[in-house]
Amino acid sequence: MIAEFGEAVNMTPAQLERWLEREESRQVGQKDGSGESTGHASGRYIVELQRKKKGELTDDDVAHMRKVVGYVRRHLAQRPSGDVRESPWRYSLMNWGHDPCGDGGSTG
Question: pTM for the complete prediction?
Answer without folding.
Answer: 0.89
